[in-house]
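Lab meeting prep.
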Amino acid sequence: MTPVEFVIWLKGFAQAAPNFTLTPKQWDDIREKLDTVKEDPSKWTRYTLDDTNWNINTTNKINND
């Protein structure tokens, strides 16, 4: 499952869920589905703010610096 497909799935899940706190089982379902998401590092984007300008950098690796 791609990240986009997960977002679509999660939106449907949220619409189908009642308007109250999720049950432990529902959280387990979300975690299980999230585990199926395959990340594509070639499409990662990093946003940085320099003074008042936003920069968008697409990279194959995001460093936690």
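Slide two material, second protein:
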Amino acid sequence: MLQSFLRAAKLRRWLAKPDCPPVMKECKALFDKIYLTKVSDSDISGTIGEDTMEPVPAPVDLHAFLKGPKQIIMPARVRHNGIIYSTAKTHKGNSLVQFYPRGNRDSSPIPASIKHIYRDGKKTYLAIHRQLPADNAIIDPFALYPYFPAKIYSSQLSPTLELIQLDWIFSHYAQWNISTDHSVVLSLNRVCVCHLCSRNLTDKYPGIKLF
């Protein structure tokens, strides 16, 4: 099941990339009908001016970010660069994202779950709860495999709600609860692990030819 999920995710990611061959993009409509969740146009937002949703009162936990009660648009999903992100209530898998804190791409991506998606003015924001790190007593077995993007985390989310922007997102991630206290987080990043391995080898040994 995991292999099938990863293959489907890689296919969707490849079709969304700008360097995807035109002939494969012609088949994208067919692949979308097979693999993508059926979503009405009114549930997907991403381009300002195309919304048909009416503003609603903001939830209480967003008042601190909005400086008090306010009417905002709260879509269930948002499409960004061809990828759909959802609230945890709508689709748990699409709500699991890794993001760069404050948009700093020099830092390590942090896993989190999207609780709210909302639009204030012309900007779309995601309100997230970070996944808590595992306690220090736990030895992470995946630390021995630097090219396999998995890591042990706590199965609990931080109670603190944070705002992030769509451009801060690194990728989706898969989560496997191995116990009541701990989960495995597997990054579904856009960069092929094999490419990273080959790049590291060629950096270390300039004369080597892998392909």
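Talking points for slide two:
The chain has a mean pLDDT of 79.
The longest helix spans residues 2-16.
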